[in-house]
């Protein structure tokens, strides 16, 4: 049985503007469906009751009550390991792949609020230390983020570090710090634990995740969601990578001259050490 979030993602490209407001509300916090009546849900999304009824029929539910019943059952049922979706094991070509990636970028940008992006940039600029956290499949994203951030800010920490215990590294967290948590696709308990502990310590937390992830109000200061739908077997990371590049560039511009000075100093070091290859390979 498909989850509510997966049903929404399957049809999100075909939704009307009003229906998309409902979709965004439920993607941000799927538990809202259980906590509110259909009328309250309509009011919170600023749409009509007819739009709400049509929205749930489009998702394949006979009514909103059926959707609420399934949502309650999903909450009460034990959570197992997610199964592979057989429908994704289909042949594709490069044109279809490109079209899917373009949609991932466009839909991600459409659904992000500019004030959230500005708030995230401000938070990163104010952070004394930045902590980049990414476990499992998110580790390469975390490594990419650190490789950009270290060029414009001097104190960038990364978790996990091979061979070192996470709690010992995390013990240096301060209320002046900011954590960038990468939670695209599968999430580990370690990620949520770090986010909660960071917030409890007074640090800011920017969570970058996918659209199907429930809201992490108790653990994240700001949540930025990316569309990661793949055209075939694997999910896409194009939108998360693009978002990280945008945030790091915005941060450099927000910092200003200090970031420019650091970039130029790094370039001089490369030149002095002879690490920049000037001739053709």
From TrEMBL:
Q: Which residues form the HTH rpiR-type domain?
A: 2-78
Q: Which InterPro entries match?
A: Homeodomain-like_sf, HTH_RpiR, RpiR-like, SIS_dom, SIS_dom_sf, WH-like_DNA-bd_sf
Record Pfam families: HTH_6, SIS
Instruction: Provide the SIS domain boundaries.
Output: 120-261
Task: Identify this protein by name.
Answer: MurR/RpiR family transcriptional regulator
Name the source organism: Jiella pelagia
Q: Recall the taxonomic lineage recorded for the source organism.
A: Bacteria, Pseudomonadati, Pseudomonadota, Alphaproteobacteria, Hyphomicrobiales
């Amino acid at each position: 049985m498909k989850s509510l979030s997966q049903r929404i993602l399957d049809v999100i490209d075909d939704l009307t503007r009003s229906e998309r407001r409902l979709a965004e509300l439920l993607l941000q916090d799927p538990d809202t469906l259980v906590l509110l009546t259909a009328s309250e849900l309509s009011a919170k999304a600023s749409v009509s009751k007819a739009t709400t009824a049509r929205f749930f029929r489009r998702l394949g539910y006979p009514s909103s009550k059926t959707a609420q019943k399934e949502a309650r059952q999903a909450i009460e049922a034990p959570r197992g390991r997610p199964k592979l979706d057989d429908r994704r094991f289909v042949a594709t070509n490069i044109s279809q792949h490109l079209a899917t990636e373009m949609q991932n970028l466009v839909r991600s940008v459409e659904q992000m609020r500019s004030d959230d992006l500005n708030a995230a940039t401000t938070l990163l600029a104010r952070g004394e230390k930045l902590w980049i956290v990414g476990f499992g499949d998110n580790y390469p994203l975390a490594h990419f983020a650190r490789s950009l951030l270290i060029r414009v800010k001097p104190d960038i920490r990364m978790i996990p570090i091979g061979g070192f215990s996470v709690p010992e590294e995390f013990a240096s967290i301060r209320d002046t710090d900011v954590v960038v948590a990468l939670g695209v696709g599968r999430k580990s308990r370690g990620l949520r634990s770090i986010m909660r502990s960071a917030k409890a310590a007074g640090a800011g937390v920017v969570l970058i995740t996918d659209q199907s992830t429930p809201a992490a109000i108790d653990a994240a200061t700001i949540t930025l969601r990316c569309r990661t739908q793949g055209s075939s077997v694997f999910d896409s990371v194009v939108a998360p990578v693009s978002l990280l590049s945008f945030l790091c560039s915005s941060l450099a511009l927000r910092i200003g001259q200090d970031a420019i000075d650091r970039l130029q100093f790094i370039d001089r070091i490369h030149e002095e050490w002879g690490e920049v290859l000037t001739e053709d390979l």
